[in-house]
Amino acid sequence: MPKLPPCTEAAIFLDFDGTLVDLAPTPDSIHIPDTLPALLTDLQGRAGGALVLISGRAAGDLAHWLPDFSGLIVGGHGAEWRQGGTVQPRVDVAPDSLAMLRDAASAFAGTTPSILLEEKPTGLVLHYRAQPDLQDRVETFTADLSQTHTDFEAHPAKMAIEMRPRGVGKDLAMADVMALEPYAGRTPVMIGDDTTDEPAMAWAQKQGGLGIKVGTGDTNARHRLPDTLAVHRLLKHWP
Ligand SMILES: O=P(O)(O)OC[C@H]1O[C@H](O[C@H]2O[C@H](CO)[C@@H](O)[C@H](O)[C@H]2O)[C@H](O)[C@@H](O)[C@@H]1O
After folding, report:
1. Which value does ipTM take for this structure?
2. Residues lining ligand 1, judged by CB closer than 6 Å?
3. Which UniProt keywords apply (predicted)?
């Protein structure tokens, strides 16, 4: 168990898929453990509100899965924030640009039924979990897409490639959040499982905080937990 700062002195950043909930075949087939909503509410209270959900998912999507959570949700890898029940974009995404990106991705996904297109307010994801041998095709397509649709860049995720607006990242979002009350002056702790969480965990460590990697795989995080259950245990017993 990593040595944690007291929750009254920590700014707690939690990734969602693969960290709070187990991965599932599709984004819509995840299971929210019965105890998770109360766990988050309890810790958020004990931490004086300094608990942030920070996800690649759209903020509204995450709110749909965790309707009891009233704290800050950073969605789309930082491209939008949900506060007080309202989602606000944090970057300008030109509607025409996004529409063209969606059209191209939709045409590509239409050629291969096992590729799943997930559309978000600020980007999209092409999932190949149903047929992992499509990885090269999806990587090549999204690399080309980022050359032709230059407002967006491709980021590998778990069995998926994300197209997100340029200049967006969980690390950048964390820096913005940490300038605000009640997070300012606290020790940032970032818990995540994916390559898209690595810059955020590195940023937390650079500020004197903690990066905690969930699961196997290379990481720059100095701490590791084996799975989502271990994360839940850590949250429950956070001093
Ligand atoms: O930043 P996160 O909260 O970890 O979100 C990252 C992406 O998670 C979702 O995709 C991943 O989880 C799916 C459900 O388990 C899984 O089917 C998929 O293969 C994973 O890549 C979500 O769909 C994306 O929008 C998030 O960006």
Report:
1. 0.98
2. 15-18, 23-27, 30, 55-57, 118, 125, 127, 129, 157-160, 162, 194, 196
3. Hydrolase, Magnesium, Metal-binding
